[in-house]
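Let us work through a complete example step by step.
Step 1: write down the sequence.
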Amino acid sequence: MKITLELVRQIMRDALGFDSFAASFISEIREDKNHPTAGITKQGELSYNPGFVAKYIKSKEDLFCLLLHEILHPAFAHFVHLEGRLENIACDSIINAVISQIYAPQSKLGSLFQRFYSPGGIEGILRPGSLMRNSRYSALYGCLYSHGGVRMTAGEVIQSLKILAEKSAEKVVLLGTHDGDSIPLPAAQKILEELKRALPQNQAGHSELLRELLLEALKTCLSIKKVVLQNYLTRRKIDRFREYHKVRRRTVSPIPVYPSKRDLALLSAGVCTGYFHNKVSRSYHTDKGIAVYLDVSGSVNEHLPGIIGVLKKLKDDVKTIYQFSNEVVEVEFKELLKGKISTTYGTDFDCVAESILENRYDKAVVITDGYASLKKELGSRLKALGARLLTIIYGSGTSCDELAPFGEVVLLMDIC
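Step 2: predict the structure and record it as tokens.
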């Protein structure tokens, strides 16, 4: 099968709509004999091994399987905190099951996966139609491909595979790109937004769990809106946020670039003074940062993968983050993304208030489930400082009476 840019874009438009951003993002098709299979580079190039394509890509449905597999990678990548072989196999097993069943007509029931992977052993969970009855992976496979399977989160699929996996996992060849050089975040977010809008509706039966897993991944992959965070930047902490300003001033010039009203009036009266008072704007910026306090008490455990998935989108802007339980611990942002947590398992807002007061932060962001207390004396000191807090609620909480007097209280899902 000959892969052309026109064919690739048409496949994306058929699946995601005529004006698909994913279709326009793919900008070039090229051969790469060093790639074991195929993948989309961060420049939008579909690079592929010609030997792999000749052997496995026999139809546009096979190509759809490959393209959508790559597109879904950014959605599930945030579940992989300590990226390794088993984590990638687990995420790929969910992705392939989603494509094979939710997008069954477009993928011809995952035709590429059936051709590429063997139907037994650990490879069997990466494709539909496997022979898993007497396999150690049969229960996990049943969750992905059988009606009425046990409800699982993506994180639970990863943990299950870590328990079940054999040494043969090291030999599994995975489709696509797994080296962190795939679709960049801004483009990935736009693609995932349109994928969410174009998700096939009214599918019952065995696809219900897969839809939940897919929506779970898409939901937590969307970034915190920076327009919200811009209101809570502080000069007391320097990250990579920039606040832009404009200053207007007047200059004298023989050319009327942006003439004043007086100059325009003189010109309309037929009077030319030989020079004009132009209004010009000069832009400059100030470097600022954001103080983020993340609740890492015992109740955060089940929500942490999703929270880290959302925060991951800020990794290029934020250097450090504050974890809090009954004490505040500042950690490198990259360490948090690896799953490094320091907690006493209790929680209160007293330690947060003390940290804000000590650093004299005029603004801060607190991410919490809302269930904690704040001493009245510390609250009074925060008011005296004039501190403004953005409180972001996750989990089952909907409000935070303790922090509400200091600023906005919003749900995590509402600013993603």
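Step 3: interpret the result. The mean pLDDT is 79.
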